[in-house]
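Technical note accompanying the year-one report. For the benefit of new consortium partners, we illustrate the data format agreed upon in the data management plan: each record pairs a sequence with a structure-token string. No post-processing was applied to the example shown here.
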Amino acid sequence: MTHKQIIEETLDGTVLFNVPFPKNIAHLKEMSPIILKHPYHVEYLHSYGQDSPWFAGLANKKLLGTECPKCGYKHTTPKLSCMRCGAETEWKELPPEGKVHSFTVCHYGAEEFLKETPFILAMIEFEGWNTLLLSRLVGLDPQQANLKWVGTKVKPKFRRNSKFKPTDVWFVPA
């Protein structure tokens, strides 16, 4: 008769003193796996590097993009180097209003948006800028999605206390 020893669980996981081991090592493949639970904590240091001015702008209620001084190409999503000609770009402030270029209703999302599903993601177009900015569109009912929204004037809204995340900005009808 085999005697099973019950070992009490703790928040630190199970502490094993007698690990079952077969008398004959030929039976090792029949052994149950040993499973240990370990708490794990790591502090992650993240650098926004070349995008730091963009996040500083969000914290100060400003939307920034970059412009190429060589060819004039304007990036709403900042680029250190121009994606058209490769020259180093310069920081510029985006206009205070844009318009909906296209949108989609998302019924699933990352953890950040789970409580908001369904939500609207929109490509925002700015007068005189060559690229579009992807952001949430708030203030319209996702259940009433309509192609008439394309072209709607929108303005940015900023999180009062910045978390230094892209979600610190979203758009609402102007």
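Partners are asked to follow this layout when depositing records. DSSP finds one helix and ten strands in the chain.
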